[in-house]
Specification:
alpha/beta, six-stranded mixed β-sheet, four-stranded antiparallel β-sheet, binds adenosine-5'-triphosphate
Length: about 280
Amino acid sequence: MKENIISINHVHFRYPGQTVYALKDVSLNVAKGEWLAIVGHNGSGKSTLAKMLNGLHYPEEGQVTICNFPLKDEFVWDIRRRLGMVFQNPDNQFVGTTVQDDVAFGLENNGIPHEVMVERVKASLQRVGMLDFLNQEPHHLSGGQKQRVAIAGVIALQPDIILLDEATSMLDPRGREEVLRTVRQLKEEQDLTVISITHDLEEASRADRIIVLNKGSVYREGTPEEIFQLNEELIKLGLDVPFPVKLSEILRLQDFEIASNYLSEEELVRELWTSNFKK
Ligand SMILES: Nc1ncnc2c1ncn2[C@@H]1O[C@H](COP(=O)(O)OP(=O)(O)OP(=O)(O)O)[C@@H](O)[C@H]1O
């Protein structure tokens, strides 16, 4: 079994002046190299947890350890160097006037020597498939391309963990697909740990494991297959079950033999084309 790169133990957190806990006795671990999706309806505590992992909030009770650093003032910059974040709005994250300036920005701030920087910018853009856009201005890019450049800016800093905070929610289906494919490749090629915070269960289905938050607490934890079996419970929590899961369920109720495991849209289409249905 792989070591934990993040441990969260019995964390409680309230915003100043609030009596209600935004995070209530949250415990979870993230293994090195895994893709963990954290899902939940509005107000379930996802953003609060994301901000805590970036050292913007500290637990009132409980402990958080990231890359062996306890979450404390003195280690915040060590933690931020190891955990890179990609946010929701692609336009708010662009700081450079060209793609390469943008990726170079974080490296410059970290005092990386010029020759190393040039190489790292190129290598990072290559890894997200954006090398051909080196001199482009951001307004010429699609939303998906902008988010891939944001990811390049993060991986150029060589973090161990990348946290996507609703990073695909403003993208069209094509942009979303581009970003999720890029993340999957990065995770597989270099053992990057991925945390995606999302209200979108379709995005979460790409993860190795899903944690469902509700009212600041961990409601369930499991593989996508296990979580999607909760079906009605997820709908009650205000989460929208992905279309292929809904369709598989309806077909199964009609006595069609559909694999009981979770199928992506592509896999379901393949199954529908190739199966000998025993209706
Ligand atoms: N700055 C704040 N001050 C007071 N309460 C807050 C603040 N930010 C969030 N909260 C409360 O903390 C709880 C968790 O909110 P949080 O934003 O973490 O949820 P979320 O799952 O990310 O929801 P959303 O998807 O709407 O951002 C909610 O009850 C919310 O009202």
